[in-house]
Every structure is written in structure tokens, then in C-alpha cells.
Write a structure and sequence with these properties.
It is a multi-pass membrane protein. The chain has 458 residues and is mostly helical. Helix 11 runs antiparallel to helix 12, helix 15 crosses helix 18 and helix 16 runs antiparallel to helix 18. The chain is globular.
Length: 458
């Protein structure tokens, strides 16, 4: 109750800081898993450029693994919250066991299919004769450890749903730090190269998964884990998949875009262009994660005030988060446009790869200052309960507009066309989002005007 009152009365700025900072930290820590891996891999002596290209080829597979992790993790956690709200604690507890079993079954299937058909999949995803070895060296180890990846994601999410977000954040931070230390030791001390990076990732995910599992097994959790709950319940599996299907579909769509992009990069820029994209997407991720964290913080504030018909407060929460995102993104844009060599140099200092990446990043992140409006705008639409429109707006920028641009623009501009696909998509998606937002915000003013008229004539 107190929490609700605060959402409706405390200043929007204070609320956004309170709710967004932990989420921003969580998102950045999550991103660092991939970013740190790529920094270390890109700096492997003699083979760095080809090694980072090999990792670039595996990105769609990593995204598919994440898609299944989100299908189970978000599906289970959301349903736990719903069941607890309904007072059905036993069903909430059963969901944890079902989540563990589903994680194990799906992980084993992904590992087997991935390892058996790995070479064919990697070639389909953009691997050449030169980069196939590096892609294989990395992804086969990741695939073998898929069980820890999905289990860690699922259980870390359920710990939040169990009412222990601090522990969930601690586990994530420790996992990330473990990955960083092991990357340095296995790649440069034990000279394991790209395989060292993959082993470091799997071990850190194993640490996360075991720690999260122990939280339930040792009965430290609010929801008690029982072995009987490991037996799959059809009705629970259905509701897990029903809720997890939306984020799953988004990640699968992202994977498809990565495959199309990799193949376009290979045709118009060769192997190094894929390596450049691996670096560019990592840098892009660093700038985008704070915005996603900001969205997570803004969502309950907007939702509560919209529900309470305090439209001005809901609108202000959006405006403040949009302004903060513009400031963050513009700062990133200035860095990219003025000192790209400094940022790109963290990942690789090979002159050829540096030249392609610097040119690529300047074009690819051209619309960075306005992307925040598109992302916070679709989050606002989602927060006021219009999930379908929000889903379309999210897909516009990353799938619906982007895929045709990747296919069409390179025919006219070559490799630069692949880079231009993203900013053109960003611009169009932002313009459409702004039009929908203006209509949405104006509709509340009309509602208020009608209500005031009725009061005056009553």
C-alpha cells in the first residue's frame, strides 16, 4: 500500500532514479557477458580479427539460446507472480520445478541438434572457410554448456519473482566478474584462445546456475522447492509457454535479422565486415542497456499513474525518461562520431578491421540521439496496457523495417548500404512512434475535457 501511494505522490524524477538505477545496473551487467568476451577475443595475438569474426557468426545461435531461456524464465516468473496474487502458493511452487525440468529438456535438445548440425548451421549463418574453425571452437563449447545458460537465466528470474531481487542481482554480478577473470586467465595465461573465452562463459553460467539452485534446494527461498514439482504439469507448461512466447518470438526475429545481416556483410564486405558488426553491436549494446533499464524503472510508475487516471504524472514519467534517454544516447553519439578509434580499439587494433569498423559504426549509430524516443515511446504504449501496438512498434525498428533495408540498400551502396539499414530503420520507426504517441497523449486531454464539461453541466 505504501509503495502504491509513493508511486502516485512522490516526484517523478526521484521515482525514476529509485526504480531505474538497479535495473540499469542489472542490464549493463548482463550486457558485459558478451561485451567482455568480445574484447578479450578481439585482442588474441595474431588471430584476433578472424576470431572476433567467428564469434560474430555465432551471434544468431546465442540469440536462439537466449530466446528459449526467455520462453521459460519469463514464462515461469510472470506466472509465479500471478499465482501468488491469486493466493495459489502451491501452484507457484510447482512452477519452479516445472521451470527446472523444461530448462533441462530444452537445453539437451538444443545441445544435441546444435552439435550434430553445427557446421551446416554456421555456414548458413555466414561462416567462411577462414572463419569456420573459430566459430566452431567457440560455439561447440557454448552449446555443450547450454543447460547452465538456460537454467541460470530461468532461476535468476524466479528468484526475483520469489521476492529477492538483491540476491538475483548479486548472483548476476558475481557471474559476470567470474567470466571476466576467467577470460583473462584462460585466454592469455593458459593460451586457450577463443576456446578459453567459451569455457569462461560456461563456467560463470555454471556458478550462477548452481548458486540459484542451492537457494531453492537449501530451503532459503520463500517458495519451497519439492522434488515432486519436477514432474511436468500440462496446464502449467501451457501457461509458461503462453506468457513466454512474446519475448521468445522477439528474440527469434532478432536471430533471423542477424542471419540476414551476416550474409549481406559477407557478400558486400567479406569476413572482416562480420567481425566489425560483432564489435559495433557490442558498443551499441553498451549505450542501449541503460535505456532498457530506464524503461523497466518507468514501467510501474507510468502504469500505476495511468491506472489511477493521473495522466499528467504518467505523461511526465514518459517525458523525463525520454529526455534522459536522449541525453545518454547523444553522449554516446558524440563519442562515436568524434573518437570512434578509441572505442573500437578496445576490441581490436588490426588496421584493416579498424578501418571497416570505424566507418561502419559512424553510419550504423547515426540516429543514436533519437532511438531513445522510439524505445521509451513503445515502452509507454506498453505500460498503459496497449501491448499489441507496443509489440508492433518494437518490431518495426528491429525487424519489419530493418530486414527490407538490409536486403535493398546494399544493392545501391554496397557495404555502406548494410550499415545504413539500421539508421534508416531507426528514423522511420521513431517517426511512426512519435505520431502514435502524439495521438495517444492527446486522447487523454480530450477525455479530461469531456469529463470536465459533464461536471460543469451536471
Amino acid at each position: 500500500m505504501k509503495n502504491s501511494q509513493v508511486l502516485g505522490t512522490e516526484s517523478i524524477g526521484k521515482l525514476l532514479i529509485k526504480y531505474s538505477i538497479p535495473a540499469i545496473i542489472g542490464m549493463i551487467v548482463n550486457a558485459l557477458y558478451n561485451v567482455v568476451d568480445r574484447i578479450f577475443i578481439g585482442n588474441i595475438p595474431d588471430v584476433g580479427p578472424l576470431a572476433i569474426t567467428g564469434v560474430g557468426v555465432t551471434m544468431p545461435i546465442m540469440t536462439i539460446i537466449l530466446a528459449f531461456a526467455m520462453l521459460i524464465g519469463i514464462g515461469v516468473t510472470t506466472n509465479i507472480s500471478i499465482k501468488l496474487g491469486q493466493g495459489k502458493k502451491e501452484e507457484a511452487q510447482k512452477l519452479i520445478g516445472n521451470g527446472i525440468t523444461l530448462s533441462i529438456i530444452i537445453s539437451v535438445i538444443i545441445s544435441i541438434v546444435g552439435i550434430i548440425f553445427g557446421d551446416s548451421i554456421l555456414k548458413l549463418f555466414g561462416a567462411s572457410d577462414q572463419t569456420l574453425y573459430y566459430a566452431q571452437s567457440y560455439i561447440y563449447i557454448i552449446l555443450a554448456g547450454t543447460i547452465f545458460n538456460i537454467l541460470a537465466f530461468t532461476l535468476n528470474n524466479t528468484i526475483r519473482g520469489d521476492g529477492n531481487p538483491k540476491l538475483a542481482a548479486t548472483i548476476m554480478v558475481v557471474g559476470c566478474l567470474t567470466n571476466i577473470v576467467l577470460d583473462a586467465v584462460l585466454i592469455f595465461v593458459f593460451k586457450l584462445g577463443i576456446q578459453g573465452a567459451a569455457i569462461a562463459t560456461v563456467i560463470s553460467q555454471m556458478v550462477t546456475a548452481i548458486w540459484a539452485l542451492m537457494y531453492y534446494v537449501k530451503a532459503k527461498s520463500n517458495l519451497k522447492f519439492e522434488k515432486s514439482s519436477l514432474k511436468l504439469d500440462k496446464s502449467l507448461v501451457k501457461i509458461i509457454f503462453a506468457i513466454g512466447s512474446a519475448p521468445f518470438a522477439m528474440q527469434i526475429a532478432t536471430s533471423l535479422v542477424q542471419v540476414i545481416s551476416n550474409n549481406a556483410l559477407k557478400v558486400y564486405g567479406g569476413d572482416l565486415a562480420i567481425g566489425a558488426m560483432a564489435t559495433i553491436s557490442s558498443i551499441s549494446m553498451i549505450f542501449l542497456m541503460p535505456i532498457f533499464g530506464l524503461n523497466q524503472g518507468a514501467q510501474p510508475i507510468i502504469g500505476f499513474n495511468y491506472g489511477a487516471k493521473q495522466y499528467d504524472r504518467a505523461n511526465n514519467a514518459f517525458k523525463v525518461s525520454a529526455l534522459a534517454s536522449i541525453i545518454i544516447m547523444t553522449s554516446g553519439w558524440l563519442l562515436v562520431q568524434t573518437v570512434p578509434e578509441l572505442i573500437v580499439g578496445m576490441f581490436n587494433k588490426d588496421p584493416k578491421l579498424m578501418k571497416i569498423t570505424v566507418n561502419g559504426i559512424r553510419i550504423y549509430l547515426l540516429m543514436l540521439p533519437i532511438i531513445g524516443v522510439s524505445i521509451t515511446g513503445s515502452n509507454y504504449i506498453q505500460s498503459v496496457g496497449k501491448a499489441k501496438i507496443a509489440m508492433v512498434l518494437s518490431l518495426l525498428r528491429q525487424v519489419i523495417l530493418l530486414i527490407p533495408m538490409i536486403v535493398i540498400l546494399p544493392k545501391f551502396f554496397g557495404l555502406d548500404g548494410v550499415w545504413y539499414a539500421q539508421p534508416v530503420s531507426d528514423f522511420l520507426a521513431t517517426a511512426i512512434t512519435v505520431v502514435i504517441l502524439v495521438k495517444e497523449l492527446r486522447s487523454y486531454k480530450k477525455d479530461d475535457f469531456v469529463k470536465n464539461e459533464k461536471k460543469l453541466t451536471a
